[in-house]
Design goal:
Elements lengths: L1 E4 L5 H15 L6 H6 L2 H13 L7 E7 L2 E10 L6 E9 L8 H15 L4 E7 L3 H9 L3 E9 L6 E9 L2
Helix pairs in contact: 1-3
Length: 168
């Protein structure tokens, strides 16, 4: 397994991982009609723009690559609330490789990179009902900080919790 910075040519593979992981991880949490309508070809241009807009090491996209190709990714940058705080916006892996340590490797690489960017703290958001993800983050040292918002992805009201992690 190799973790590396994503390039523009990786956008298609990142979009595939994004859609496939959402369709499995969020089944029963996000409305099924929304998940069914997700299409990697619709996500590719967004990922191409996001990768092109990287300001390494303060923002970027990392990919996990195996012999089978890209099987996971993480994206990060300054949080919307403060440019002094980093935010991990995404961390997804193909369901077929869940439990193989790819998420841990991506998280470690993202935190190392954010530490090099001189952020003192990182945050991320997780659906309250996503117990698997919450266990993963808590095992990696992330803690809920008491902040919650309601997300209306797919037309449903979904509670999201903010988790924090010190850097450095």
């Amino acid at each position: 397994m190799r973790i590396r910075q994503a390039g523009p040519d990786d956008a298609s593979a990142v979009a595939r991982v994004h859609v496939r992981s959402w369709q499995v991880a969020f089944a029963g949490l996000v409305p099924q009609h929304y998940l069914d309508a997700m299409d990697p070809s619709h996500e590719e241009s967004r990922w191409k723009s996001r990768i092109a807009g990287t300001r390494w090491p303060s923002s970027g996209v990392l990919v996990a690559e195996s012999e089978a190709g890209i099987v996971g990714f993480a994206s990060f940058g300054p949080s919307e609330e403060s440019s002094a705080i980093a935010e991990i916006g995404t961390l997804y892996a193909m369901p077929e490789v869940w439990g193989a340590g790819i998420g841990k490797q991506l998280m470690a690489a993202a935190l190392t990179t954010l530490g090099q960017a001189d952020y003192a703290q990182a945050v991320l958001w997780v659906l309250e009902g996503n117990e698997r993800a919450r266990r993963f983050y808590e095992a990696a040292g992330w803690r809920p900080d008491g902040t919650a918002v309601v997300d209306t992805t797919g037309g449903a009201a979904l509670n999201k919790l903010r988790y924090g992690h010190p850097l450095g």
